[in-house]
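[job 4471] stage=fold_predict status=RUNNING
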Amino acid sequence: MLDIFLLPFMQRALLAGLLLGALLAVLGVFVVLKRMSFFSDGVAHASLAGVAGGILLNTNPLLSAVAFSALAGALIAWLERRTRIASDAVVGLIFTAGMAAGVVMISFKPGYQPDLISYLFGNILSLQWSELGIMAILSVLIILFLIWQYKNLTLMILNPEIAHVNKVNVARLQTMLYVIVAVSVVMGMKLLGIVLVSALVIIPVSTAKLIARSFKSLVILSIILSEVAVVLGMLLSVAFNLPTGAVMVLCGMGIFILTFIASRIFVTKN
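[job 4471] inference complete, writing structure tokens
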């Protein structure tokens, strides 16, 4: 079975899975601790408008979706600061508007759209080298930003008041966090699809929180658990000819359940 990884399309899929698995896991730490889970899910669904726009304009849907999601993330952050509308309601507005715009734009190009289907439900095996290159470049830029702003981001998430005292521009940093989370989630659409991509942001971190004892261990465990779910899901999907993205999510959920049971047993014994 491992011989299949000698094929170029499987190599692309594995590289993309490992890259995005790690990136989404790290960002997932900030998303979960800041209670932005609905944000990641909403942006993924809203990006349907960007995907549909790319298909209509005969451009790479990944690029158009990334651009749209970045604007959506910045708009959500701006509306949260400038209005008295609750955060989840703001996300809901952008979520529904983006989905509706995507459906309308799709109606202008009737017929079966294989690219659109892959973005809706994920098809990592159809990933092209050009798309992997886009993902790699954006991931490197995001990782560099996270390294540069790691202390400020951590302070903003754990204690915004102290961040203000330490002269951290919380509003600007939060906007940038929204934008990079939105972009990263959209990159993960090829991996899991619009419907499931937020799972790889939330599940590994939620699992790691059951056993992590510090912020650093939370980040490291989230990455490890995410990569295990990605690789195991890919192997099982190939072995049993099942949808890759869905199997990855189920693997992640299986690991969560086993970790939860193990943690409960450990607590009971002690």
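[job 4471] summary: The chain has one domain: 2-195.
[job 4471] exit 0
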